[in-house]
UniProtKB/TrEMBL annotation:
This is Succinyldiaminopimelate transaminase. Keywords: Aminotransferase, Transferase. Its EC number is 2.6.1.17. The keyword Transferase applies. It comes from Roseateles hydrophilus. It is an enzyme of class 2 (transferase).
Length: 397
C-alpha cells in the first residue's frame, strides 16, 4: 500500500459521527442538518432537459479536454462575469467538479522528492487541500484565520523559510467557512511571493456566485488582470456549478488560468481518466450559458440570511458574511464540540464544530469555539433551525 495514505486525517464529518455516536437525539423534534454544505435548492429544469437531449452522445468516448463548445461556453461566462478574454483551447479546462481538480493539481505540480516540499493553505480549510498535499509527498503549512479580518487567512504567519520551500498555495475566496473575500492588495502580496519563490496558486472560488454585497466577489484571474498579469503566471482558478446552479450531483466545474500549467494538468488528467460525460458536458453548456437561474438562486440565499442572521446574532457571535452559504458563529463558553453535541441531543439539530475544520497551528486551533452553519435548506427549515439554536443557547447555564 502507498505509505502516504497513513498520513491522511479523518474527514470532519467522520470525526463528527464519532463524537455524536452515543447521543440519542430528542425525537420530539424532526431532524435538521446544517452540517454539510450540500446545496438543496431545486436544480433548474433546463439542465435536466439538456441531459435528455444529449443521450445519443453516450455512444462515443468523451475527450478529456472536453468539447470545444463547452470550453467556449466557460470562456464566455468568464468574459461576462469578470470582463476577461481567455483562449478556450489553452486557458480553460473542464473538470469533474472542483473537488477532484483541487486534489489533482497537487499531484501535477508538487515534486515530493524535493527536500522540504511544502503546500500552504488557510486554516480552517477544505480538507481536500491537506489530503492532496500529503498524498503528493509534501508537508503542509497553515495560515491561521484572523478574527480581526473576518477570519481571513493571515499569510504573514508563514515565514520566509517556509515560503522558500512552498510549491503550491491553496487560497479560498470567498472563504470556507467564513465567507471572507480576498481584496486586491492581498492578491498582490501573494503574487509577489509567488514570483519570488516560484510556487503555484490554486484559487478555490466555488462560492463566488452567492454573495450579499452589491459588488460581486473579486476573482483570482480578475485580480491578476487588474495588476497587469494577463498571462496568469502560476495561477489557476477553480470554479464549480454545484453551488452556482444547485447541481452538486452533476460534478461539473472548470479550471482556468496559466496555459503552461493547464497543458501539464491536461496531460495528468488524460492518464488519470478524467473525461467528463457527454451528458454532463451538455448540461454544463446550458448552465454556464444562463444567468437568470443564478440571480434567482442568489436572491433565495439573501432572503434566508436576512431572516436567520439577526435571530442568531442575539445569542451567538455571528454576522452576515461577504459571500458563501455558511454562517461562522462563535458559541458561548467556547466549547464548539460540546455545543454541537448538546444541540443534537436536545433539539435534533446537527451543526459542524469549527475545530473539526482546522488544525492546531501557531499555538491554537483557529476553528475552536465556533460552529459552521450551512444554510442550504429552504427558508422555513433554516428558520426553524435558528429558533432551536436560540432556545438551546438561552437554556444553557
Amino acid at each position: 500500500m502507498n505509505p502516504l495514505l497513513d498520513r491522511l486525517n479523518p474527514y470532519p464529518f467522520e470525526r463528527l459521527r464519532e463524537l455524536t455516536a452515543g447521543i440519542t437525539p430528542n425525537a420530539d423534534f424532526a431532524a435538521i442538518s446544517l452540517g454539510i454544505g450540500e446545496p438543496r435548492h431545486p436544480a433548474p429544469a433546463f439542465i435536466g432537459q439538456a441531459i435528455q437531449a444529449a443521450m445519443p452522445q453516450l455512444a462515443a468516448y468523451p475527450a478529456t479536454a472536453g468539447t470545444p463548445a463547452l470550453r467556449e461556453a466557460i470562456a464566455g461566462w468568464i468574459t461576462r462575469r469578470y470582463g476577461l478574454t481567455l483562449n478556450p483551447l489553452t486557458q480553460v479546462l473542464p473538470v469533474n467538479g472542483s473537488r477532484e481538480a483541487l486534489f489533482a493539481i497537487a499531484q501535477t505540480v508538487v515534486d515530493g522528492s524535493r527536500a522540504g516540499a511544502t503546500v500552504v493553505c488557510p486554516n480552517p480549510f477544505y480538507q481536500i487541500y491537506e489530503g492532496a498535499a500529503l498524498l503528493a509527498g509534501a508537508d503542509v503549512a497553515f495560515a491561521n484565520a484572523d478574527p480581526a479580518r473576518n477570519f481571513a487567512a493571515d499569510w504573514s504567519q508563514i515565514d520566509d523559510a517556509t515560503w522558500a520551500k512552498t510549491q503550491l498555495l491553496y487560497v479560498c475566496s470567498p472563504g470556507n467557512p467564513s465567507g471572507a473575500v480576498m481584496p486586491l492588495a492581498e492578491w498582490q502580496a501573494l503574487f509577489e511571493l509567488s514570483d519570488k519563490h516560484g510556487f503555484v496558486i490554486a484559487s478555490d472560488e466555488c462560492y463566488s456566485e452567492i454573495y450579499f454585497r452589491d459588488e460581486a466577489p473579486l476573482g483570482g484571474l480578475e485580480a491578476a488582470a487588474k495588476l497587469g498579469r494577463s498571462d496568469f503566471k502560476n495561477l489557476i482558478a477553480f470554479t464549480s456549478l454545484s453551488k452556482r446552479s444547485n447541481v452538486p450531483g452533476l460534478r461539473s466545474g472548470f479550471v482556468a488560468g496559466d496555459a503552461a500549467l493547464l497543458k501539464k494538468f491536461l496531460l495528468y488528467r488524460t492518464y488519470h481518466g478524467s473525461a467528463m460525460s457527454p451528458l454532463v458536458q451538455a448540461a454544463s453548456i446550458a448552465a454556464w450559458s444562463d444567468e437568470t437561474h443564478v440571480v434567482e438562486n442568489r436572491a433565495r440565499y439573501r432572503r434566508k440570511f436576512a431572516e436567520v442572521t439577526p435571530l442568531l446574532a442575539d445569542v451567538l457571535d455571528v454576522a452576515l458574511p461577504d459571500a458563501g452559504f455558511y454562517l461562522w458563529a462563535g458559541v458561548p463558553g467556547g466549547d464548539d464540540v460540546a455545543f454541537a453535541q448538546g444541540l443534537l441531543a436536545q433539539y435534533n439539530l446537527t451543526v459542524l464544530p469549527g475545530s473539526l475544520l482546522a488544525r492546531h497551528a501557531h499555538g491554537s486551533n483557529p476553528g475552536a469555539g465556533r460552529i459552521r452553519l450551512a444554510l442550504v435548506a429552504d427558508e422555513a427549515e433554516c428558520l426553524e433551525a435558528a429558533r432551536r439554536i436560540v432556545s438551546f443557547t438561552k437554556s444553557r447555564p
